[in-house]
Amino acid sequence: MSTPLDWLSSLLVMMPVSGQLEIRCSYGAPWRVTYDRANAGEMPYHVVLAGSAILESPQGSAPQYLTAGDIVLLPHGSEHMLHDGSGAPPSPVHSRNSLNVEISENAGSGDRLDMLCGRFVLSPQHDRLMRSYLPATLVVRTARRDDLSGESTTSAQLAALVGLMRVESAADSLGGHAMLNALSAALFALTLRMASEPDTAPVGLLAMAGQPRLAPALTAMFNNPAHPWTLPELAKLCNMSRATLIRHFREKVGCTVNDLLTDIRMTLAANELKKPSTSTEAVAEVVGYQSLAAFRRAFAQRMGMTPGEWRRSAHAST
After folding, report:
1. What is the arithmetic mean of pLDDT over 106-115?
2. pLDDT averaged over the chain?
């Protein structure tokens, strides 16, 4: 009998996220880097190892000041800019390749920025769901004190992981490229875990994760999505009333319980449809639909294409 997974582990099994560390930047002022909108299925990330930077994005949000230990994730793949804040024309940048990562540097002066840049990658159809429940820009700050109990915190774990990425990106070690990509994938999970811990976690799954009373409902839906879950059932698992469960979902996730359950089911269905030997009828049953017509309608509404179109597109991309 397999061990039940927590809901975040189940989510990452359902829609695996891989990582690619691509560039290590070393800039002195003045410097500025502009990033275009990412391709479908790509989420850029930046890790500030030393120095500082100012992050600007076109969504109208205020610029954010970044320092050593800060991690920036852009789940919507938004265009953005990083700069030193001086407003001066940037110094010319030169690139060179090491064994495992590209080095981008300039001849600027003053305190130098040391930054890792890469991307998280997932299926273009899966990234729609992930982006629906994550903010456009997510900044996690690891340079904070651990709690007084002396126990290892997520902040300390994340700092240790970043430290290992720093070492690997600076050395021409055998297997370094594979190691950096594996560490990048772990960086995604740890960043989400840490972002969910404060009371100020943004609306979506991160805010829901910070509500331990709601964890039983999330875990139940992710681990057994085919079950015909009802609001009273899920509320009972959380030891709360139906009205309270509905209110928490609206306030923390920004959707209904049924919306999330349907998204989970359609994500699982998309995975199952990739299997040539599995019929659409069987997939519908696996995700809890007794009516094939109802499944087709739900899939088309959520995924923007019919199950047959999704199956053909998935096979064409392999």
Report:
1. 91
2. 87
Using alpha carbons, select from 260, 134, 146 the residue that is nearest to residue 202: 134
Q: How many domains does the chain have?
A: 2
Task: Examine residue 204 and state whether it is found in any structural domain, yes or no.
Answer: no
Length of the chain: 318
- Which pLDDT belongs to residue 1? 44
- Measured CA distances, 312 to 64, 307, 317, 318 (Å): 43, 9, 9, 10
CB 5 within 8 A of CB 222: yes
Q: Is 82 left (phi over 0), alpha (psi -120 to 50) or beta?
A: beta
User: 97 pLDDT exceeds 50?
Assistant: yes
- CB atoms < 10 A from the CB of 22, how many? 15
On whether both 218 and 71 belong to a single domain, the answer is no
Q: What is the CA radius of gyration of the chain?
A: 22
Could you give the C-alpha distances from 289 to 10, 226, 285, in angstroms and in order?
20, 8, 5
